[in-house]
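Human: Not sure, check this?
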Amino acid sequence: MYRSTRLIPIFNQAVRQRTLSPALRPSAVGWGVQSHRVKATAAPAADHEPPSAPADPEKTSKSFAMGLFNGQINPQQVFPYPEVLSDEQRDTLQMLVDPTTKFFQEVNDAAKNDTLEKVEDSTWQQLLEMGAGGMQVPPDYNGLGLSNTQYGRMVEIVGEYDLGVGIALGAHQSIGFKGILLFGSPEQKEKYLPKLATGENIAAFCLTEPSSGSDAASIRTRAELSADGKHYILNGGKLWISNGGIAEIFTVFAKTPVTDADGNTKDKVSAFIVERSFGGITSGPPESKMGIKASNTAEVYFEDVKIPVENLLGGVGGGFKVAMNILNNGRFGMAAALSGTMKGLIKKAVEHAAARKQFGSTLDNYGVIQEKIARMSVRQYVTESMCYMICANMDSGAKEFQIEAAISKIYGSESAWYVADEAIQICAGMGYMKDHGLERVMRDLRIFRIFEGTNDILRLFISLTGLQDAGKGLKGLQKALKNPAANVGTIMDYVNKRAKRAVGLNSGPSLTEYVHPSLADSASQTSKAMSEFGVASEELLMRFGKKIVDKQFHLWRLADAAIDIYGMVATLSRASRSLNDNVPSAEHERHMCTFFCNEASVNVSRNLAALKSNLDNSNYAKMQAISNNVVAKGEHVQEHPLGF
């Protein structure tokens, strides 16, 4: 048996070599309930305002996804494909990758964890001894101090072998105590991080309530300042809390009364570091779940819990910012884990297809199976390309990556589900059997489209966040039109773009200079898609103005187009690097990149055309009517074909 004691010296050496330990990272693990409406924090633009030129360059976002909604390209975050690891970081990561992989192959038993509905005690203890409980905690606080990129690679390994373990670890460090890393005072970090990093204390993230899932602002748990001003008194309950039954330290979000300078008092969300030892905290029994059974999930109740005022995290009324930063900083880690999961699924499917003989030939020689393997492989490649682009941006100091992170979470979780389904289909009856392991992976995967913001809500988040930024530009042109003599350049730039569109010319940015020559056609497809996307965003704002927040059929399709375009750019950039470096897999990557861009460009055009198609808009109304009828009756509406 390969024991973790053989790994401890390697991990300790890695800790000693840490020189930089950014606080940003991981794979967040929250649970969410879809709300029926997403409200923009500010209106994208006034009703039917004219479109506008780009904002002041000094204030313009460097986020690629933000620029996309303005029909612009911000190349610095996507071209060339970012490489951020120093030689020392790369060497350290290599020392961690091989033994960690071996540990999950030889020590961890995913099937046993699933049956026990917990991570086996000896396995959990060995993981903590290896430093897995504090991968991004600075070495000064007993952690490994890994960067986002290094962390992503480690999470990928866990995701390949056991998502249940991944959730148990992620709930602890990716969201459980992540707020302390991001917003904690020096005193809070000194007090809590050392024991959290070693796993002596386990952490949990407490946001979701029965009436509050994706709509975090609707929470009802309250914290009132005591009469002597020394404590907050916390009352309320949280549900579906990962590690909720075993955690000692909780990051809890509660409503607190906040009085402004004018003396007006209003409830706002605040965040608190809460210890179980404070008293008044109870946990429900572990929930019985479809998947990720090795992860403890339970309700947590707070009754008159006295929290010292120094345990306030992020300031009074700053809880919403704390929560959103924790989740935004962690979503790329989900893509990393699921990238690993897809690798494991593809291995099993290919092994079966190459060995199983039917009608005189192995399965891998049949076109229908070849298509499945190709599509599975491309989805994994795109997810992986997105993930490591985003974490590299974060390691380089990017401040705006929330749209890109949401895209990676949506694409990764939906792709992993697709790959699991196809892997089972290829393995057929064998894949359906419990002992083969694929059914467990499929059960584990289903939650990833729900927690840490449902994919439905995140699609609306992508569109509304991007349109809000684009709407600022519309106001800029409106201002320029009030004084045309002083803003000729701004106005003419817009007029020229409109003229090109009128005659069918691509007014978007050219990507040819950024990609390998053999990918020129794919670059042109992507450029055209970006141009069409910018036009569609502009037209939606002009057509609906502030009412765009209610047009969820449109917002969904706009988000799907944004997801495809970001995937095109991520794969173009990565494949170009491989081709330029002449890596052994370069030609294979070129095939995957061009295949994806071919199909994605068609999908983008289709989704954007649907935004203004009379037929599609008619169907939106029909879907709304069908849904309303079914909900009103509480069941199916149509009469049975037999009449009784």
